[in-house]
Backbone:
């Protein structure tokens, strides 16, 4: 990608030039070159990625000093929200996530999840579909309608394993599907695949 001026980065990222200069001075954004007049030039793709990470971490309440430390050390643990009313299934998922050193929280139904989501902002949700009160389909639909959380990945976990049910899950907004019962390796593989494939959807 070409080196571009700060005005071009500002326009694409919708971030003020003064803010980008501040991030540069703090070492959060890198200057790749300078013009003959000394004007800073930035690698377009790399800088847009850096700014997106800063915005994401800032939305989670991290200070710029904390963000710098996190980015220099390789980033954050993945955050996963478990939404499941079955304590046995939830405990199994927790044990698997803990082994992978992933951070997690647990909600027993859709209403409790709604209270957690905006503050926790997980990277991925494991979602049971059959729950009292608000089922998983409604939870999916609500998440996809909310611009603040609509891009969170959703892994549906359910005992119903038919083509029709899978299509219903996809239509509701889930990204992928894991039938019960499942092994620890199946869950680990599925989650890792979802983190690596941003466009993944139920097949």
Residues:
């Amino acid at each position: 990608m070409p080196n571009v001026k700060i005005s071009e980065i500002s326009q694409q990222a919708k971030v003020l030039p003064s803010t980008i200069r501040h991030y540069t001075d703090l070492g959060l954004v890198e200057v790749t070159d300078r013009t003959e007049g000394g004007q800073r030039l930035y690698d377009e793709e790399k800088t847009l990625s850096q700014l997106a990470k800063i915005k994401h971490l800032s939305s989670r309440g991290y200070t710029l000093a904390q963000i710098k430390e996190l980015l220099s050390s390789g980033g954050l643990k993945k955050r996963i929200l478990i939404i499941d009313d079955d304590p046995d299934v939830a405990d199994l998922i927790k044990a698997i996530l803990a082994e992978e050193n992933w951070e997690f929280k647990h909600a027993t139904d859709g209403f409790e999840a709604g209270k957690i989501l905006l503050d926790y902002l997980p990277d991925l949700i494991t979602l049971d579909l059959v729950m009292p009160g608000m089922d998983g389909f409604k939870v999916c639909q609500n998440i996809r309608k909310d611009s603040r959380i609509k891009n969170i990945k959703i892994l549906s976990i359910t005992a119903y394993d038919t083509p029709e049910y899978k299509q219903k899950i996809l239509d509701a907004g889930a990204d992928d599907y894991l039938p019960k019962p499942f092994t620890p390796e199946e869950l680990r593989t599925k989650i890792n695949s979802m983190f690596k494939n941003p466009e993944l959807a139920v097949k």
